[in-house]
Predict the 3D structure of the following.
Amino acid sequence: MAGVAFKGITKVFGKDVKAVNNLNLDIKDKEFMVLVGPSGCGKTTALRMVAGLEESTDGDIMIGETRVNDVPPKDRDIAMVFQNYALYPHMNVYDNIAFGLRLRELKGFFWQLLNMSEAQKIKKDIDSRVREVAKMLDIEKYLHRRPKELSGGQRQRVALARAIVRKPKVFLMDEPLSNLDAKLRVQTRAELIRLHRQLGITTIYVTHDQVEAMTMGQRMAIMRDGLLQQCDEPEKVYAYPANKFVASFIGSPPMNFLDATIVASGGTSFVDVGEFKLPLPAEHPAASMVGKKVVLGIRPEEIFDAALPSNVTPTDANTITAKVDVLEPLGHEYVAYLSVGMLSIIATIDNETKLKEAQTSKFTINLDRIHLFDAETEVAIR
Ligand code: ATP
C-alpha cells in the first residue's frame, strides 16, 4: 500500500496549453480521493501522469516513497479503470480477469518453461484469486460468458474485477461509471465505496460529476483550468467553499449569487443587494469592510417558506418578500424560482408548502449559512 503525491506538477501540451499548473496534492495511503472539475480542467491529465501514460513537464510524482517520473507504467504497481473499459471480446469473463495475472505470474506465454509443480501452484493461486474477486463483485455466475453476453453494468464489474485481482498499490479510475444508466450508476457507486472499505487500496477517482465527488470521496480536489482550487472533505467544501467557483460547482440547485455592497447603519453592518439587506455579525471580517463590493451567496436549501416551521425563526432581519414565478415539484420538495424586484433567486421548499405561483410571500434566510465572496478576486471572505 502507498500514498500518492503530486509535487509541483505542471503539464504543458504544445507551446502553451497548461493542462495542469503547479499541482501540489498529497493523497494518503488507503485514501479515496476524487479529482473533480469541469471538462478540460486537467483531471485526466493529472491521472495519466500518475499512470505514466503522460510525462510531466515539471515536478515530481511520488508513489509511496518512490519518485516514479522515470518508472515505466508497468512497474508502477497501479491499476486503471476507464470509462471505455476494453475487455477482450474473444475471451470469457474468467480469462479476461485472469489474463493480466497469467502474464505477470506465469511470465506471459513462457509458463511452459517453469517447472510443472511451480506452474501448477501459480495456476491454482490465480484460480482462487479470480473466483474470490468474482464473488466480491457478484459476477461468479457469468465466468463462462463472453463480454457481448453481458449487460453494460456487468461488463463494468468485470473491468473492475480485472483491476482488483492484481491487488495494486494504487487504483486510478477515470469516469468509470459514465457509461452506465442512472440507476446502475448509483448502485455501482455504492459498490465501489464498499470495495474501497474492504480492500483499503489508495484510489484516485476522476469525475466531472459533483454528486459522485460528494458521495464517494473521503476528500475531493476541485480543479479549474489546471489549477487546484480547494482540497478537503466533501462536507467542508460544501460548507466552506474557498471561492465563488467552488461554491457554484458544488451543490444542486446551484448557490444563488447576488452582487452586493457592505454598508453600515446604526452600528450594524449589512450586506446590501439593493432590494434587501441582511445584517452581518460584528465579528464577521466583512463587517469592517464598509463600501466593499462583494458577492452574496445563498444556497437554495437555506431559504425557507416563512409560513412553515423550520429551524430558522423568521425575524425582520432574516425575512424577505418575494414573488413565486415558478414552482417545480420534485416529489419530496419544490424548487421555487423567486423574484425580488429585478433579482432572481432559487429556493428549495418543503412539499408541505401552500405557496402558489404568481403569489407574493415571505421567505426566511438562514443568516448563519450565507457566504460572501470578494467581488474582484472571488475568494471567500470569512
Ligand atoms: P474531460 O472531463 O473533458 O476529460 P479533463 O478535466 O480530464 O477533461 P484533460 O483531458 O486533462 O481535462 O485536458 C486538460 C487540457 O489539456 C484541455 O485543454 C485539453 O484540451 C488539453 N489536452 C489534453 N490532452 C492533450 C494532448 N494530448 N494534446 C494537446 N492538448 C491536450
Q: What stands out?
A: The chain has eight helices and 20 strands. Helices lie at 43-51, 93-105, 116-136, 152-164, 182-199, 210-216, 234-239, 244-249.
